[in-house]
Specification:
With 33 residues, this protein is an all-alpha fold. Helices cover 82% and strands 0% of the residues.
Length: 33
């Protein structure tokens, strides 16, 4: 059970990291607007 929770935590962190990068890159590129 602990292993599964660890995997979910890592997945959540990865998704948050990718989402943050997308937001930052979108903010840096005027074309995204």
């Amino acid at each position: 059970m602990a292993n599964r929770e660890g995997a979910n935590q890592k997945r959540r962190e990865a998704v948050a990291s990718i989402f943050g990068m997308m937001l930052m890159s979108g903010r840096d590129m005027p074309a995204a607007d």
